[in-house]
Write a structure and sequence with these properties.
8 helices; 291 residues; 16 strands; alpha+beta; globular; seven-stranded antiparallel β-sheet; nine-stranded mixed β-sheet
Length: 291
């Protein structure tokens, strides 16, 4: 986008002039946290939830964010205004900041806060109408004891390796299993199935990210009278689901019609999935922080 204005540490810079140091540990080591946020119809959706999760991720890696939640929320809204955006994808990044070539975070001074507001189209539009094929890949989800999947960190190599395997298989997304062989999530989205009218999704303990769209869909399903549970799921459970879909801030709700060559349900987006999509879109249009 020509003329994009990017927020870095309290100031706006043009796209050409928006730069960080090559000594920033966010670049050198993936040491930092981020959020992807959406704005719809002049409102930033679930902003408070995203900022809260950002601070939880930062606390988990002992990263002291140099702005209050209120100041960051205001900066997100200001960045949308500066770019004259009513519908946007917002990337909020906090890096460890400039340090030495050693990996010790104590060498870093002040963390940096970066906000980019632009457009995103994660998946081709036709996939929302016809549904997506996905595959299970060999790369397993990070162990909780290694790099907890609940931390939305700048170190996304685990997800990227799985995405490469999806690309090699000729599909857009991939199912990642955990070390025990249970379904965790996809490379950038949470996963849901519907079986006998019940909505099921892997528990956070299986390696699923605490997805904000995930939680919104769970709430919408419960309001619609659906039973919702979070059991450990296997590939067998996915193959024999009546319906399947993915959720994420960028993806929203994406129907899945085939997993590892097995057709899901009738091979098209299911009735309950379509109903949840309608309710989700209705919610995004009427709620959020005004820009």
């Amino acid at each position: 986008m020509i003329g994009m204005k990017i927020f870095i540490d309290g100031k706006f810079y043009s796209e050409r002039d928006a730069k960080i140091s090559v000594f920033d540990h966010g670049l050198l080591y993936g040491d930092g946290v981020f959020e992807g946020i959406r704005a719809y119809n002049g409102r930033v959706f679930k902003l408070k939830d995203h900022i809260e999760r950002l601070f939880y991720s930062a606390k988990a890696i002992l990263l002291e964010i140099p702005m209050s939640p209120q100041k960051i929320s205001q900066a997100v809204l200001e960045t949308c205004r500066a770019n004259k955006l009513r519908d946007a994808y917002i990337r909020l990044v906090v890096t460890r900041g400039v340090g030495t070539l050693g990996l010790n975070p104590k060498s870093c001074g002040r963390p940096s806060v970066i906000i980019i507001a632009g457009k995103i189209q994660l998946y081709p539009q036709e996939l929302y109408a016809k549904g997506m094929d996905i595959v299970t890949v060999p790369t397993t989800r990070n162990l909780h004891s290694a790099l907890n999947p609940a931390i939305k960190s700048l170190n996304y190599l685990n997800n990227i390796l799985a995405k490469i395997e999806a690309n090699n298989a000729g599909v857009e997304e991939a199912v990642m299993l955990n070390a025990e062989g249970f379904v965790a999530e996809c490379t950038g989205d949470n996963l849901f199935i519907i079986k006998n009218g019940e909505l099921l999704t892997p528990p956070l303990s299986a390696g699923a990210l605490y997805g904000i769209t995930r939680q919104t869909v769970i709430e919408l399903a419960r309001l619609a009278g659906m039973k919702v549970s979070e059991p450990n799921l296997t590939r067998y459970d996915l193959f024999n689901a009546d319906e399947c879909f993915l959720t994420g801030t960028g993806a929203e709700i994406m129907p899945v019609i085939k997993i590892d060559g097995r057709v899901i349900g009738a091979g098209n987006p299911g009735r309950l999935t379509r109903k949840l999509v309608e309710e989700y879109h209705a919610l995004t249009k009427m709620s959020g922080e005004p820009i």
